[in-house]
Fold these 2 entries.
Entry 1:
Amino acid sequence: MPKRTDIKKILIIGSGPIIIGQACEFDYSGAQAIKALKEEGYKVTLINSNPATIMTDPELADSTYIEPLTVEFLEKVIAKEKPDAVLPTMGGQTGLNLAVEAYEAGVFKRHNVEMIGAKYEAIKKAENREEFKRAMQKIGLDLPKSDFAYSLEEAEKVAEKIGYPVIVRASFTLGGSGSGICHNLEELRNTARTGLDYSRIHEILIEESIVGWKEFELEVMRDINDNFVVICSIENLDPMGVHTGDSITVAPAQTLTDREYQRMRDAARKVMSEIGIETGGSNVQFAVEPQTGRMVIIEMNPRVSRSSALASKATGFPIAKFAAKLAVGLTLDEIPNDITKYTPASFEPSIDYCVVKIPRFAFEKFEGVDDRLTTQMKSVGEIMSIGRTFKEAFQKGLRSLETKRFGFGGDGKDKIFDLTLKTREEYLQFIKTVSNDKELREKIFAYVKVPREDRIFYVKYAYWAGYTTEEIYKKTGIDPWFLEQLKQLIDFERELLAAQGKPKLQEALMRRAKQYGFSDRQLAFCWGLQEKDVRKKRKSLGIKPVYKLVDTCAAEFKAYTPYFYSTYEDEDEANPSRKKKVMILGGGPNRIGQGIEFDYCCVHAVLALRKMGYETIMVNSNPETVSTDYDTSDKLFFEPLTLEDVLNIYENEKPIGVILQLGGQTPLNLAKSLLANGVKILGTSVDAIDRAEDRDRFKKLLKKIDLRQPANGIATSIDEAHQIAKEIGYPVVIRPSYVLGGRAMEIVYDQTSLKKYMKQAVEASEDHQPVLIDKFLEDAIEIDVDLISDGKIAVVGSVMEHIEEAGIHSGDSASVIPPFSLSREIVEEIVHKTKQIAKELGVIGLMNVQYAIQRGQVYCLEVNPRASRTVPFVSKTIGVPLAKLAAQLMVGKSLKDLKFTEEIVPKHVAVKESVFPFVKFPGVDIILSPEMKSTGEVMGIDKDFGKAFYKSQDAAMSHIPRKGIVFISVKETDKPKIAEIAREFYKLGFKIVSTKGTGKVLKEAEVPAEEVLKMGEGNPNLSHWIKEKKMDLIINTPSGKGPMLDEGKIRSLAVSFNIPCITTLSAARAAVRGLKAVRDDDLDVKSIQDYHGTKVKS
Amino acid sequence: MKKAILALEDGVWFEGEGFGAEGETFGEVVFNTGLSGYQEILTDPSYKGQMVCMTYPHIGNYGINAADVESSRPWVEGFIIKELSPVVSNYRSEMTLDQYLKKYNILGIQGIDTRKLVKHLRTVGAKKAVISTLELDPKKLIQKAKKSKGIEGVDLVKEVTCQKPFEFDEIMPAEFAWGDTQKKKFKIVAVDSGVKWNILRKLNQHGFKVQVVPAHATAEEILAYKPDGVFLANGPGDPAAVKYLVETVRRLIGKTPIFGICLGHQMIGQALGGKTSKLKFGHHGNNQPVMDLKTRKIEITSQNHNFVVVIDSLPKDEVEMTHINLNDKTLEGFRHKKYPIFCVQYHPENSPGPHDSDYLFTRFYDLIEKNQSNAQKN
């Protein structure tokens, strides 16, 4: 069927900030959709609040709105752009929910906009639990038995009817509170009671437990002609009970016979028609009872998803791109398969390799967090790895995670409870003795029962402890097929260990070891050698990886798309060209502190270099990204970012050099070892990086250009730390060197805390990396500067002023372009000094410097001679793609060539606000600290600070109410300053309530305020106010750390009940400015293209 | 595990590990891109004379069960895979793949770069080959492969067909059944040129009483059953080598409704004067897109054939093309304009493979019904 001609302009809704469960995969899908629709000749408008996305690049859509994803702003964009249709299926759950809300508010009807891709009714049917259940029953599909209950008695009856164990879920609660699994009546009573209490409508769902069943997922597509294809089947290693986003998953399905698989396919097909998904991609999840084969449907998502991105990368079939084309009426047979060129998209990919996805967690960032894996997703990122076998892909996957592991153990990092097996001897000793240690044995076995981040390694220890596959299967529910694969690795590792000191035997085992995915590091550990010795030995034996193609068709047809993975087999398909080529290292899995911003930079580098005629080679392991779209670079290698894997590609491809400075800390950490292996590093030299990162050398650098630094020192022991802290005076900031995202960074006020800290710090630090101690500058303003330099001249991208004071991680602060409170002299001094640093270091490319301004004095906090997290924010604000320019500088262009020689100070104001995952971690205190906790960011852009800030809060989903009740309670030191802020709120028409202490201050300052009881002071108290949503805004500054404090409970309750909560005075002041700005003048929307003029530099 | 060598007639060879039986075996190497369904593939009689290389690396994961077989025994001459599963994990499994192949004395080889082999076959076409655990000198094996008989011009149907007529009465277990069910109404004769059991099961399900006859049954013998229609099955080898079957079909045309698949499709094609030619490496897998030219709908089909009917060789005035392959635009189905005859090149019984083509059995049913009501009118 030909594409529709009755629609001309299509609005795409993005997914907003990166949050747990919604990462860069929607930048990937959105960017693909925009390109696909433009290719078909449609005009495309985009709304997305996240500036760190490729999709919001001005070149992509015809008009791009970096505005909050709310019905209010969506309608404004629609009113202005007048699109004919909206495509709501590309922006994750956020996009889908917004479309549903807008539909229900009558926006689409009012403006005559058609929903394409998924109709309102279909979305409702798929998303509403009851409607979904009815629909599935209608088409004869089996579901877990379930029913609602509204009282304890009802709950008991339902549970009895279903049969224990049952799962209780409270309706309308966030973060899974009031839910749990119950094995008997007593447990049911307890859980049901809390559930009924927590649920706003006193409703709980009681469901048959299918925990421990096998979990499968099908990625499917359907077109307007009812043509239906399965793109990929996925089987979870972790059985039901763990959110699929937190599970290790494998493609394709491994343990289904064809009959069982086809039955699932038939079911998915029926689901698509019954739900009414006329066009596009969806995923359908199933559970299968292992003993009987009973298959039940779990859920379906009527949109592209994290797993569809994974499926696209796993098969080479671009689901989002095709989904966009199907949405405008094309059919699958009318779309050519990009990879084979001559065959159509109306087929089902076949693959001749195995794909493993492993989630990446960040529990270490959240004190007191429950690290058990449940049906609530907790991971912050993921990696994908490809191997010819599961064993190979699995081990490659573990080393892709960058959790300092180099495979399935045997890498000197195995940790069994408190015991770390650092040496080969310790390792051997442990293997030998563990089965005799009854207590430890049982402890290990008990530990594998509960899914956790590190459970998979304990499976290995359980095997060592003498448990059988059958026993481990019964305990974990991990299918015996997977367990036996792991066992093959464990058994083979014993052979490897036994070959120590036997070079001939080592040689004989080498090839199989590599085929099993063992890294050189693991082999070095097993044989008591250095990694470099293993590499040398391996190469001398001619054992080198070959690169195979991902081609959608298992080699049946010739493939034209150079998308590769390594394996140890006969035939190499990489076929290196003789062109001039540049290799770009990506950022690996998303984690807190390193995410989409770096992928954005890498993609920009690729685009710029391609345009210059270089062949670009991208290396990355993160399937959610645009950089791992095979369309992005000339050659894509889906590989772990370790020295071994990167060197292998480098030696095979022989590029003119490697770009490290755009992928965050991951590639930068490889700089020294790559250089030592003869790799040419493009851009800023490794020595310059070292000068910025080595504390002593850094000190000298600052001295040389006469820049102040907070008093500081380096300690390698607790005693040394004491000494330094005493000298420079408390409070101090402590952190391990070479870490990212303020990992383990803390402000310490006394000796006791220092001691406690030093114990933990050793763990976060690389081997022998010392601990850095700085004087903490209280009440200082923090500044970020991004700069670009060609080695001769340097230009500042932007000076950014943080809203929160120094001491809160820069990644967690709101930041503003241009600075809003600094004098011109100070800004000029900062610009000048930053350029001096760049010149001194010989920076070629990007650099980020952080300053603190205390009492008019400028202190330099740190220098990062690489792309920073703020590069996309700055680029979008000033209209200059800094990363693109940087890449060109690295291959020899000058800033003059690129016509960027002067700083652009924009006439508008842009505010970057951070977004936090607290809602996923119930009970964790939400206060900000030097340890970064945010997962993503949004941007508010407008004429003045107030409006931009107000928008940024809307975009960050912490909408500042324009009227209502504000609760104020601040710490002792903030009390003198609170009255002035409270008065402003009062003047803006807010009613103020406060606790006794703060109330007293307000009374003295004659600000009318009502007093509310603290928790435990009687009823009704603060917690009732929050639970009943009687307050609209909370201002609560923390006096100390710890969720046990009353104020900590207030804040985490506020999160659970979705009440915006401001935790610093500076943010409260900004809120006042925002409210004032929107009081009289309504907010407007403006496209990025309009802000910068349609012509965009590149 | 024992060392094994796979050698192709053109000099390419691979060293791997043997599994299943030991010894030496010859056949034409083809590859199959199905991600699941190895048991159905092994027992598909159309693979007689061929060695199958599975493109998916992990094979044997779910073992072998008695219910999913497509005939009385596995027919492949050899089985080539990347990695045999060390364990079987499936609630229906009854034995391992290794045990199964041993039981039927079939050689397997694992641990080779199967992708390299597939790419080679894709480039040079299907090749005669040998797998051996006895002779480990590749040069000698290459010579042996060269001298081996091959399948072109060889009648392999006679090796796989049943010896005596029998009635088939079985349907799929309810938990795995799909598609329409019609009340048993018509009696048909199915010519067993290597028929897969799921075809017979499907025919039963779709309202046919099924009388199976050997491939060498004559038209007179077939018509003696007074069938309401005749079904022509799939089968192995070179369609040009089964002249007797073409002759039988020629005599049936116009006398009874006919539905043919795969080899049956090629028989009808030849009987109507068409020619067959050999594809470079055939279609073997579960993901081939076919378009029904009438409805413009696409079905993902299960296929296993090396030969095709040449479109232009068919008499245009008698035959209407109904299905084409969207990958390479080869003929996938046609019908006779005058007589109640239609056929497809692929496998509508879908075992293994997606269940998109079930409607063809209904079409056969409707065709017979219409034919009979027309006959009454006249």
Note: Residues 359-377 of chain B form the longest helix (19 residues).
Entry 2:
Amino acid sequence: MKPASFSYHVPTSVDEAVALLAELGPQDGRILAGGQSLVPTMAFRMARPTHLIDINGIAELARLTAGGGIVTVGACVRHAAFDSGTLPGATGALLRKVVQNIAHYPIRTRGTFCGSVANADPASEWCCVMAALDGVAVLRSQRGTRRVPAAEFYQGVMATALDEDELLVAAELPMLADDTRTGFVEFSRRKGDFAIAMALVAYRLEGGVIVEPRVAIGGAEPHARRIAEAEDVLSGQAPGAAAFVAAAEAASAAVDPMEDINNTAAYRRGLVRTLTQRALESAE
Amino acid sequence: MTERREITLTINGTAHKVTVEPRRTLADVIRDDCGQTGTHIGCEHGVCGACTVLVDNEPVRSCLMFAVQAEGRSIRTVEGLQQGEQLHPMQEAFMRHHALQCGFCTPGFLMLAVGALEKRPDLNDEELVDILSSNLCRCTGYENIIKAVRAAAADMKARA
């Protein structure tokens, strides 16, 4: 089908964008960034925004920077930006692993990191990264700027702390120490489909044992989150089959999986176990 | 509320001045308003890849972009691949390797493969297959499409 009519606005600055959003947000105005989720839902007429505020012309939002221990991802940074070797360290290596799993190449050239974060699909890889790394959503409105940690930002299936007059101007990812090992594995039935579940792990070794473990699960529950029960199992253990199997078991027991027409909760719980173990085994 | 905008789309180097509603997708405007019907429309929601075109040399789904967003950008479609009487190496390879049956998905595959290889001429087999998984061929002629793109990759490198 074809999208329904809307009025089109092209701000050239963030100030202009949030001014438009303050006026049009309450009238079902929406931000248009990459459009790779919004436009299909408009084509299905599941979304019928009366106004679209296209932020692609705002130069400052296209910036991807690393400095002061933080990767800052501007609102118009495309998925494909993470494909190249430009981001340093363990965080750059992790994001390169993750991006390969996002949809397909022509979607990655348009879709944006922050668009995925704001859309908050349970199966979004970037939402899982935000949860795993304790990312921060930077929200701008005419009322000011709020920095909301991932653990508070995500509230449910496609539900976030974003108010209707707020623009997600950037996502901030605290950088991992350079010697951090990371692993990411997801499962979908066809290449490029939405994942049924995914696991992201990160840890360091000190004196031969695991320190600062992170285990995040996405796709299984209404929103991605860190699983403290699995992290506690890993902490202080030597990396290897015994610790990995125990952590995977703990993650599987801790989640409260969603059900849909193709996947029962028990199936997703099993996937969480398998994917957590694979992510830990593949971490490097 | 049906506002209309006058925009100029540059398709294969030719300027097309058109007046469109913002809700019109780039795919529809390329076909209906600019008369370039080589770009095909399959699913209209970004799944099949039949409408893939190059915008500033990046492969994009033209059904997931509004035409008003493409003003000032360089758009390339299947009509722009042939130079005079000379087919593009990718088009030649598709013929030679029987990489099309009904031909509906072909323009999308051609633009996807050309866009990817212009950017990264040294794509390995695994990367090529990964990129070609973006588009659907309902005749399921994937093996021959992969063969053709592999052959064209070598040809494009030799001619570069």
Note: Chain B touches chain A through 31 residues (CB under 8 Å).
